[in-house]
Amino acid sequence: MKKPQAIQRIAKLREEINHHRYLYHVKDTQEISDAALDSLKKELHDLEQTYPDLIIATSPTQRVGGQALTSFKQIPHSTRMLSLEDAFSTKELTAWEERNQKIVPGKYQYFAELKIDGLAVALIYENGELITGATRGDGSTGEDVTHNLKTIEAIPLTLRGQPQGKIEVRGEVYMLKKDFEQLNAQRAKRGEKLFANPRNVAAGSIRQLNPAMTATRPLRFFAWEITAGLSAANRQQEYQQLQDLGFPVPPGATVFSSLAAVAAYLKQAELSRLSQPFLVDGVVLKINDLSLSRRLGIVGKAPRGSIAFKFAAEEATTVVEDIVVQIGRTGVLTPVAQLRPVQVAGTTVSRATLHNAGEVARKDVRVGDTVVIHKAGDIIPEVVKVLPKLRPRGTKPFTMPTSCPVCRAKVVQEPGGAAHRCSNPNCFPVQREQISHAIGRSGFDIEGLGDKIVEQLLQAGLIEDPPGLWQLTVGDLTPLERFADKSADNLIKEIATHKKIPLARFLVALSIPNVGTVTAQDLAREFRELAKIQQASVAKLAAVDGVGQVVATSLAQFFKAPRTIKLLDQYQQAGIIVSKAKSGGPLAGQTFLFTGSLPQMTRDEAKQRIQALGGKVASAIGKNVNYLVAGEAAGKKERQAKALGLKIISPQQFAQMIS
DSSP state, 104? Predict the structure, then answer.
């Protein structure tokens, strides 16, 4: 980015970050996630590093926090409550160490502790008794919330041993995830607005003007630093002193002899973050030697001797560089945002689905916009929201094309529907996607037929649809690039061995609009034969559990269409045998949902096994789910299942059920 553009971008970023910091620190509310705000701050930091002459004293990168609330008495901190510099990769940790080595050379030990997502506070004790408790505020001055902090049992009113003199302890007020869920469940019963996350509850509770209200909230506390009154040689001794005084400290804190030794701890901490009873958004690394840490001093807002390693965010901000239209296997046009590459949830994201024209219009996504994108686990990245204050001048709303961008055929919109479709059933992308889908793992499951080979066969005019694959010969393939006699023979043999297919998988292979693997399994279990599904009325189809009127109408129209009749005839001529579905099974009437990873099989293999035994697989949490299979790094589905009282089983228990 050239300097004139950087000047404009920096000004907008500062304004936007200050707005969200005010909401977060002063009003205890959020419009975007912490991860998205971190992404904006990192972009600003990187631009200022590129153009250091543009850095000003009032930039969000040069200050600690927002303004203190005026509804509480203001208390100056004896020493500033500083924030930490963030690192998002081991490369950035190495750069941090190298900067410190230039100031104080030597061998460092590192103290690593979990970074709990809560509200930082400072506690002042005189002669062992709690005198004052204050929030961070702007770092120099905080709010007097002593009476509210006294309601938290984890904070001792009198220190063990009654040490004389003044002692200042700093730490984090937080809430357990299970307590947060119970609190929200109670609010839901009363018809009250639900809280967004445990951190917001902790911050809002501490700033209640009535301590009796704070006392009703299940708040907890971890201490992580002594800033006055006692001295220690290193961080372990400091933690021991805190525990001796009667404070809980963050669990699992460990000393390492080098940054290289820290790497495994960081990886394990990230993997186990969701299983922790409280919110964890990273690891704090501190130079273990307190004297050395003090010698390194402070730069800007942060102490040089500490750094926060932030876990891969599930949300980030980036810029929409273009909006393109993709054509799927049913001819539906899907707008896709091409993004400035950004790291989200540990991977680089450069594209995100915008679903349909209605969704684009609702969110008002435009080329040039700064957007928040989300990617949790294996979910496809999507645009969560636009940040309109960062929008460049002259942007135009997105409009869906009226003709197909590939074949130029007319684009039609279904009456009353959101989807736009290419009207040409022989459009090249439609053919390609339908064939790739038919031979995929949920359909015929033919190995060795990747997207490039399918495209090659289409371009050569050797096939037009999936049944054409069984008409291919070795002689058809050998003239093609990358095919020798042996590879051609192997592929023809592989195709030939996949002439028999279960009914549910065949329904998936047909690319019926609105019919996925779960619906296909429901239909197969109910009707058992393809002919019976073809002959069924809309009312009979709609009566199947999990189908409904919309899908039933789509099914009836699909099987009556001349193109479908021709396709089924071609499959028959190719010798394809669709086997009848079995009725019942040991898992009949049971619905499963998965979260986290399964150590012994893939998610697709588990789904196929359940369906083969007569069970169902749900796509979302709900009271219809009988079992939630919670694997490693299980996410919010597990918490939702607990709130609904659903049965949660381990991957090992699941393996026993299907064995």
Answer: S
